[in-house]
Design a protein that fits this description.
This protein is mostly helical. The protein has one domain. It contains five helices and no strands. α1 runs antiparallel to α5. The radius of gyration is 46 Å and the shape is rod-shaped. The two termini are 27 Å apart. 1% of the residues are buried.
Length: 196
Amino acid sequence: MTPEELESERLKSGEALERAAESVCFPDVLRSPETVLGPKIAATPAEDIAKARDIPAWNPPAPPDLKPVNESFRTNAGRNSGSFLSLVDGRAKAREAQERFNSDQVRLDNALVTWTAEHFAATHKHYDGVIGAMQKRMDEIDLRHRELERELVRHVHEMARRIDVVLGEGEKGRVSHEAALRALREKLRALEEKLR
């Protein structure tokens, strides 16, 4: 290679390196986050999610009424000790009161079992709605993360390509500089020999 060709090659490499550096910097082309990531998604608080997702309200049933059992449980504190007839009559009334109390207690027990089952059903229905809404929200978040991941991978690949271009141009420049240095050494030797 002649020194003119070497100089021409060095200038071409320098220009290519400048173009590569300018393409990486983009000083006049600044992209907004919306163009890269898409439109902003507003964060919705948990209360808004419950309203937006039609989560059923937690409506447990009212507890059973304890009044009939409480009223039928009366002790006969004012019993008089008297004749045998009053004692038999008192036991008959006590037996009837006990039967009334027992039947009220059975009705209360049945109402409690029904209330407990309805309470659990209302709780499960509400929790299923809440969990379903949260799962939909998590699915939306996962989708957004996958989109951002793809965008990040694309940016990383683009940056790696640009780095390869810059390094390649730098290597070309280094090779041309080494060749120029060799040529200068040869010229220097030739000049030294002429001067001797």
